[in-house]
Amino acid sequence: MKEFIARLALTQEFAKEHAEELGQYGFKILEGLPKESQAVLNIGRFTFASIKLQAETKAECKRLLQAAWNQSFLPEGLNEILVAEFGDTETNLRYKYTQGIYQNFYGMDDFMRRITELSERFPQLKEMGAEDIIKKQNYLCAIDSGCGFSTILSALSSYLIALEAYPQPENGGEAACCEMIMGAEEKNGYYDEDSAIDYLRDEDSKKGSYVVGLDISYYLEGKKTDELRRFVRRLEDVQGDYVIVFRIPFLEKKAFDEISNLLSDMLLLETIQIPPYSDICLLEAFWDHFTSIGILPSTDIMELVTERIHQEKMDGRFYGFKTVEKIANEVILRKASHDSKKLEEGEEIDAKTLEAKEIDGFVREEKTKLTGYAALAELVGMEEITARIKEIISQIKVAMNNEKLERPCIHMRFTGSPGTGKTTVARIIGQIMREEGILRKGAFFEYSGRDLVAEYVGQTSVKTATICRDSYGSVLFIDEAYALYDESHTNNDFGREAITTLISEMENHRDDMLVVMAGYTDEMETLMKANPGIRSRMPVILHFPNYTKRQLFDIFMLMVRKHFMYDVGLEEEAHKYFEALSEQYMQSKEFANARFVRNLYERTWSKAALRCSLAGKSQIVLMKEDFIAASGEKEFNEKIEVKKVVGFK
């Protein structure tokens, strides 16, 4: 019998469905294995399990694990089984490092395959006297920022040392790697070609590093393929001194293959592709952060953490595990504050658990306690919109309950000026569709058209598809969608790439995602020319007209009444102000409708807060003078005047 270490990678769907089991499915697998295998569960996580067992061959090991899985779960739940053999003793360095990699990495299945291949190849190469080939094996790694590139470099260098392909570094450390970001000039941490080559040829560098990470994203901009080819030729001089891992962002297949083919023309190359992490992988990273310091989170925080991750993504600046670590640290600070307060009140605490009630306010609340239709009824001036939404929902429900009817396409276009309620209504529609059983989750994801566009050709389709993946079962709201297309610039490849991906996603998930594109009426009509398929896939059009003066006043007073006590004089002053607004100003593209009203409301209570603070009062009451002070500021007292043209005819 031989000893093996195995890693069972689960499908994302299975992992999401069983997340609340916290990896307990691993014990069910053990129950299905024969006793003579002496199987031990090293670790069970959300997305994988690592098991040590004995068998005659690797093939038998995989067969036993697959059979044990099938006894308890559907075969579709298991994505892949990786197995490595390392002899009889745990003191073997290869065993140590493989076990560590198999049980500590998540979302990096392709990297796991490369490690497994290394473990299989190296003994055979050594037998052939060709082990130095390992030193000439380079990699192209497609991975986004913050998703573990440094971790891959460190793990790979440690593993090559464990294989005895390289000796222990002279500095005594186990990891021997470095990173360089290529750029036009050597500044701000970027390397030009000459400085990079000089560093790699330096004898001291060779003593300290065996694996070199080279970020070559710079060469993707403008397709600098000739520059990249020249640089790679210069790297031939250091082949064998280093294993080079080239890094680019995760790209769609065609763009990735172009770079891979260019590098493999001159270098011995294998590829590692790490797709953008799914919610379940990011949630797993969050969980690992806490369990590593001995705190066990409760499953009741899973939805909160996932929602916070989504909120972090929507500003267009999400950095994978680094952002997740930041979220985890924020949670730790909130728990510490909660526990401190409880101790002051003489209550007992449990410092080793984490529950949702301990992190109150952790997620920016956008939800309402009202039903969707009740929330819609509260909106000013939405009578026609409400009637149309009820009609759409009724049609969908009839089709859902009648097998003979095809479910209508639900993707929508919202047209109108800024601040007319498009975002608010889209959010409420998601809530209604969840309540009516049309959408599974009914969550709300808001992006601008520009957010879908990435830095390089081939990256935009990945970014757009990832945004859509997060939005399955929910609403994807794209404001200023017309930014994706400019008919005067026919070579806008990035925008077209996003639109093409969107159309595919809208078709493939037409029953499990609502895409709403919003913007000015004319610009939205121009957007429909970008691709013949976009108009037919967005058949529902809701137009949001500008608010009247009376409606703007009503919106302002709704905000005031909801949060503050106020003086009667304020209401009278506000009514006079809105009635005095210039019609030309209200019809201009500069006017932001309800957004303008919200800004005025916030400025008004800001004035009141300052006045009350200076007077030593804790309760804020809005007064007439607060409104006068706020509305007198430049951005609110503008009146667009008709200017006479002076000149000659």
Give the helix proportion (percent range).
Answer: 40-55%
Mean pLDDT: 88
Radius of gyration: 30 Å
Give the end-to-end Cα distance, rounded to a whole number of Å.
101 Å
Strand order of the largest sheet: 7-6-8-9-5-10
Total number of helices: 26
- Beta content: 5-15%
Keywords:
single chain, alpha/beta, six-stranded parallel β-sheet, five-stranded parallel β-sheet, disordered C terminus
Structure write-up:
The chain is α/β, with parallel strands linked by helices and 649 residues long. Helices cover 47% and strands 14% of the residues. The protein contains 26 helices and 19 strands. A hairpin with a 3-residue loop joins strand 2 and strand 3 (48-55). Helix 11 (279-291) packs across helix 12 (302-313) and helix 21 (549-563) packs antiparallel against helix 22 (568-579). The N and C termini lie far apart (101 Å). Mean pLDDT is 88; it is low at 640-649.
